[in-house]
Amino acid sequence: MTSSTTIRLDxxxxxxxxxxxxxxxxxxNTYFVMAAKQLVLQKRIPFEIITEPEIPNxxxxxxxxxxxxxxxxLVSDDSPSFTNVDDLMKSLDxx
Length: 95
Known about the structure:
Elements: H1 11-24, H2 28-42, H3 58-71, H4 85-94
């Protein structure tokens, strides 16, 4: 006995998935059944989860470049450093 399941996919994702499955000669239904069976058998997601790399915004990018420049000695690091929270808080209160 089988039952019907509805899966909602973004149109672009569905198109790309269908193209790859067509190339492999596998129907979308077969693909999802295979993935489901492997999850049940292996008790884990049967493939590595990869996410798209995050692109830093301009502020983060500048901070990363500045940190790299300070680490390389290209820019002097005049930032105060603290060994405890109390000294940090006193410094913040001064401003």
